[in-house]
Amino acid sequence: MIYPIVAFGDNVLRKEAKDYPKDSEDLTTLVENMFETMYNANGVGLAAPQIGMSHRIFVIDSTQMNSEEESNKGVKRAFINPEILDEYGNEWSFEEGCLSIPDVHGEVIRPEKLTIHYYDELWNPHEEEFDDLTARVIQHEYDHLDGVLFTDYIKGLKKQMLRSKLVGISKGNVNVKYRMKFPIKK
């Protein structure tokens, strides 16, 4: 099932998400649907708030971002109730975008490495270290769980220049090849 992507301006993108309940039986189906939704929109990551669910879940597939020559080939993974334990290493800048904020990109500075604890879709616990682009995708999606968007890191004139584009997105003024859900107009 392909979900519509929630657009910038929807309150669910600004809420701190709640842990996903362990007694839920539909987790594997939800994860499969999130991957399907992400691929349909040509994304490399998708967090549950982006499909209107305020739960601490995200999926990534960073294998699409790495070339075969690179030592880090990326990962395809679901992260349930994740907790970043540490972020470290050199900070580096990279131009990020977001399925909820189409056609908007901005330079974001993040640490190059992280250690994260999470559960997979079968509730197996994991604690792993990630770096480079995979760490960046994880940090971006993790931010969604805390109600933070990549545009929050953009400052000054660049932020002012984005303002009208962000307002336009919240009003449905976008042209994308995937379904989106826009904030309800009052």
TrEMBL record:
Binds 1 Fe(2+) ion. The active site is at 141. One of its GO terms (molecular function) is metal ion binding. Its cofactor is Fe(2+). Keywords: Hydrolase, Iron, Metal-binding, Protein biosynthesis. Fe cation binds at residues 98, 140, 144. Removes the formyl group from the N-terminal Met of newly synthesized proteins. Requires at least a dipeptide for an efficient rate of reaction. N-terminal L-methionine is a prerequisite for activity but the enzyme has broad specificity at other positions. Belongs to the polypeptide deformylase family. This is Peptide deformylase. It comes from Roseivirga misakiensis. The gene is def.
